[in-house]
Amino acid sequence: LQFVESGGGLVQPGGSLRLSCVASGVTSEERYAIGWFRQAPGKGREGVSCISHNGNYTEHTASVKGRFTIARDDAKNTVYLQMNSLQPEDTAIYYCAAVPCLGGKFRNYGDLPPAYYGPGTQVTVSS
Q1: How far is it, in rounded angstroms, from Cα 41 to Cα 71?
Q2: Which of 95, 96, 116, 117 is the most exposed place for a label (fewest CB within 10 A)?
Q3: pLDDT tens string for the chain (127 positions)?
Q4: Contact 72, 78 (CB under 8 A)
């Protein structure tokens, strides 16, 4: 199971971006809960959002609630992170990984070995 993130870029404060997390090595019958993480310069990797294996449950860390939404398209093996009202503190490299989602568990998986995540996509919010 491997992931590739994309969709990052440079955006002004208040702007929007949609990140994509594409999974490979997944059969048509397999479904995984997916978490989005981010790592700002000089900081550890933190859990941002997650979505359950069937898409019925989502959760976001407090700092992004009301601004970020997460969705999945299993036909495309893709999970999206829609980020609105971006602020400079959202600047980070964003990663995705298959992690437990229910009950906030995804927040405990920011320190997995790098192979569990994709290469990441850079998001820079600056005027």
Answers
A1: 27
A2: 116
A3: 899 999 999 999 999 999 999 999 887 778 899 999 999 999 999 999 999 999 999 999 999 999 999 999 999 999 999 999 999 999 999 999 999 998 888 988 989 999 999 999 999 999 9
A4: yes
- Which residues have C-beta within 8 Å of that of residue 94, sequence separation ≥ 6? 5, 8, 19, 36, 37, 38, 48, 81, 120, 121, 122, 123
Contact 22, 77 (CB under 8 A): yes
Cβ within 8 Å of residue 33, ≥6 positions away: 50, 51, 52, 53, 98, 99, 100, 101, 102, 106
* Per-residue DSSP letter, 13: T
3-state secondary structure of 53: coil
